[in-house]
């Protein structure tokens, strides 16, 4: 991309709530979503909860003209539900499945079966290398007693590290999806501070949508009001985040959300509101592109002490998750022991019964106890394996966080120095040029969404 060139990109993100036979009006809503994408002509559409491959193939056929390039990420039992539709050619794709994702016995939640993951597609946009990420993190079912907080924290840590280690040669980085976290939740602070990604909602010049940018609103007919408690108006858990590079500057010119009802339609697109952002991507004159390719990915622009504090807080949550999982592992061992006892009971009782025919204990009762014991042994063994794997994932994440925290503390003490470049006030090399917050810059007139000289 030349020094005088600029690109405008329109991005779309939506949790489609596409659970066949369970989500209401699923087929009709997919038709509405396809009509919307075909009409609005977004450059890139990031979709979540497209659980059925049949629905993905329907969207692919319908959008073949407007979005000829597409990729569907498959993982888990029923799939990740992640799909990308693009006007720009997809050069490569990669999927990373999170190591922790709930529990298989929590069938009514279903997150474990979904194989939650982050998908990456690499696009060439007018000579610019764009890394586009789409993800869906574990849901928060009870904010007052969130047993999944350690899992979501681990997912946020794995997400930011996946982005950091795969975007070193990117000119533009974009993340969209249902993160299932409020803006000031631990996972979001961890993601923003350590990846350098910026929230389009807080930095956009103009915004048109739901109050406070909320994406799960009480006015949506599909939303269960009890799921929003204690937030009566709704919550913001869907995001589009962005980051440029040393040679590319990116800013959000405008952003909008749907507002529940759809004009001339009987129901909304989904139980979530969709997000649309228009980004202005410009080459930064006078920058050395060689330096951009070798930028230290740990330089995110955030103060080092803030980075350390967030990691320390996350380590505390992961350690608590480790203790909870140890208790669950102990319960699995107890279940296994009781099951073995039930299995041994018939084996030790039958010889005795053969010499005491007057005993009223029936063989059918012993058979029932044996079957129950076998079931308990199988369940206990499977749960023990599950919790052991989760303990290893938690321990591994905590060790990674400890290593990162130690490295950051060394930098804070001045033991590590940056090589070249101007430092900001926090002693960090800025990852992207500064941008004014939403409302500080004058709105610009929209222009065609292709390369401009």
TrEMBL record:
Reaction catalysed by this enzyme: an N-(acyl)-sphingosylphosphocholine + H2O = an N-acyl-sphingoid base + phosphocholine + H(+); 1-O-hexadecyl-sn-glycero-3-phosphocholine + H2O = 1-O-hexadecyl-sn-glycerol + phosphocholine + H(+); 1-O-octadecyl-sn-glycero-3-phosphocholine + H2O = 1-O-octadecyl-sn-glycerol + phosphocholine + H(+); a sphingosylphosphocholine + H2O = a sphingoid base + phosphocholine + H(+)
GO cellular component terms attached to this protein's record: membrane
Domain named Endonuclease/exonuclease/phosphatase: residues: 13-272
Enzyme nomenclature, EC number: 3.1.4.12
Cofactor: Mg(2+)
InterPro entries tied to this protein: Endo/exonu/phosph_ase_sf, Endo/exonuclease/phosphatase, Sph/SMPD2-like
UniProt xrefs under Pfam families: Exo_endo_phos
Entry's Gene Ontology molecular function annotations: metal ion binding; sphingomyelin phosphodiesterase activity
Membrane-spanning parts: 330-353, 365-387
Superkingdom, taxonomy of origin: Eukaryota
A single GO BP: sphingolipid metabolic process
Compartment annotation: Membrane
Region listing for Disordered, in residue ranges: 412-453
Keywords: Hydrolase, Lipid metabolism, Magnesium, Membrane, Metal-binding, Sphingolipid metabolism, Transmembrane, Transmembrane helix
Protein topology in the membrane: Multi-pass membrane protein
Pathway: Lipid metabolism; sphingolipid metabolism; Sphingolipid metabolism
Family stated for the protein in its record: Belongs to the neutral sphingomyelinase family.
Official protein name in the record: Sphingomyelin phosphodiesterase 2
Organism: Alosa alosa (allis shad)
């Amino acid at each position: 991309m030349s020094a005088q060139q600029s690109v405008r990109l329109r991005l779309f993100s939506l949790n489609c709530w596409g659970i066949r036979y369970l989500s209401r009006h699923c087929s009709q809503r997919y038709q509405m979503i396809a009509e919307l994408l075909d009409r609005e002509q977004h450059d890139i559409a990031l979709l979540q909860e497209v659980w059925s491959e049949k629905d993905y193939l329907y969207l692919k056929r319908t959008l073949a003209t407007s979005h000829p390039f597409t990729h569907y990420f498959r993982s888990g039992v029923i799939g990740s539900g992640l799909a990308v539709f693009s006007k720009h050619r997809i050069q490569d794709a990669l999927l990373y499945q999170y190591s922790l994702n709930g529990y298989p016995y929590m069938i009514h939640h279903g997150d474990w079966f979904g194989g939650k993951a982050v998908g990456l597609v690499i696009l060439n946009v007018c000579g610019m290398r764009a890394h586009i990420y789409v993800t869906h993190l574990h849901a928060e079912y009870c904010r007052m007693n969130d047993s999944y907080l350690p899992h979501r924290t681990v997912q946020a840590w794995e997400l930011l590290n996946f982005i950091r280690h795969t975007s070193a040669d990117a000119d533009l980085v974009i993340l969209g999806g249902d993160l299932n976290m409020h803006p000031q939740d631990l996972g979001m602070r961890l993601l923003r501070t350590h990846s350098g990604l910026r929230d389009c909602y807080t930095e956009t010049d103009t915004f048109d949508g739901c109050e406070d940018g909320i994406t799960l609103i009480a006015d949506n007919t599909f939303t269960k009001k009890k799921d929003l408690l204690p937030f009566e108006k709704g919550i913001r858990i869907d995001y589009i985040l962005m980051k440029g590079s040393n040679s590319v500057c990116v800013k959000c010119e405008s952003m909008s959300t749907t507002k529940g009802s759809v004009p001339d339609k009987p129901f909304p697109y989904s139980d979530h509101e969709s997000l649309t952002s228009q980004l202005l991507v410009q080459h930064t004159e006078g920058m050395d592109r060689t330096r951009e390719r070798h930028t230290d990915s740990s330089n995110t622009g955030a103060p080092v002490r803030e980075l350390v504090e967030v990691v320390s807080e996350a380590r505390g949550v992961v350690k608590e998750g480790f203790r909870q999982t140890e208790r669950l592992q102990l319960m699995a061992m107890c279940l296994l022991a009781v099951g073995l006892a039930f299995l041994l009971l018939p084996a030790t009782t039958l010889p005795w019964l053969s010499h005491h025919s007057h005993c009223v204990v029936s063989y059918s009762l012993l058979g029932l106890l044996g079957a129950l014991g076998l079931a308990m042994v199988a369940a206990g063994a499977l749960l023990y394996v599950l919790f052991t794997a989760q303990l290893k994932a938690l321990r591994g994440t905590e060790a990674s966080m400890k290593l990162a925290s130690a490295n950051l503390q060394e930098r804070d003490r001045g033991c590590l120095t940056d090589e070249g470049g101007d430092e900001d006030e926090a002693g960090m090399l800025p990852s992207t040029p500064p941008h004014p917050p939403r409302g500080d810059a004058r709105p610009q007139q929209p222009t065609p969404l292709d390369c401009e000289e």
